[in-house]
C-alpha cells in the first residue's frame, strides 16, 4: 500500500485523478477537503482529520477509517460497505442514501447524523451513539445494536435489527428483558 500525503492527494485530485484505491493516507489533515466522487476503496484513512469535507458519492468500500474525524462531513450516496469506522466521529455527518452495509460502526459517534435512506443492513452498531440521528427509512435489517444509544433519534425502524437490554431507545428507556423473557448479558 503506497503512502501519500495531503498535498499529493489534493494536487492529483485537482488534476482529475479520482482512483486512489488501496493507498495509505492515515493521519492526514484533510479539513474541508472537497473530494466528491473519489475512489478510496481499500484505503487506510485511520485517524485522518476530515471534518467539513465533501466525500459525497465517494467509494470507500473496505476502507480503514478507525478513529477518523468525520464530523460534519458530507457522505451522501457514498459507498462505505464493509468499511471499518470503529470509534470514528461522524457527529452531524450527512450520510443520506449511503451504503454502509456490513460496515463496522462499533463505538462510533453518530450524534445528530443524517442517515435518511441509508443502508445499514448487517452493520455493527454495537455501543454506537446515535442520539438525535435522523433514521428516516434507514434499513437496519440484521444490524447489531447492542448497547447502542438512540436517545432522541428520529423515525427508527427496529424491524429485524438485533437489540438487547443495553440498547437505549429513542424515548430514553431500555427494553424490559425480564418481562419479555429475553436473556440480557451485562
Automatic annotation (TrEMBL):
It comes from the Bacteria. Transmembrane segments: none annotated. Pfam families: Pentapeptide. InterPro entries: 5peptide_repeat, Pentapeptide-BTB/POZ_domain. SUPFAM superfamilies: Pentapeptide repeat-like. This is Pentapeptide repeat protein. The lineage of its organism: Bacteria, Bacillati, Cyanobacteriota, Cyanophyceae, Coleofasciculales.
